[in-house]
Amino acid sequence: MQNFTNGMSANHIPGTWVKSRMSEANGMCVEVAALPRGGVAVRNSTDPGGPALIFTAEEMSAFLDGAKKGEFDGLGTLN
Hints:
By secondary structure, the protein is an alpha+beta fold. 15% of the residues lie in helices and 19% in strands. It has a domain at 10-16 and 30-71. The chain is built from one helix and four strands; from the N terminus they run ββββα. The longest helix is centred in the C-terminal third of the chain and has 12 residues, at 57-68. The radius of gyration is 13 Å and the shape is globular.
């Protein structure tokens, strides 16, 4: 089994990368991929071979819960 680590090249992560339908037309978006054993990899769509961040299922669940509750809404605002 492969050991997935933060910062590894996203090219070395098998599976299907998915991005939101709300992605901008120019493709600037965050993409995620399910990992074996329940983890999640995250990459920048404008640098698909760049570094990936790796999260456990529990970490991603906590993040998504906060996002659904609006806890991060201020981060998407342009100042």
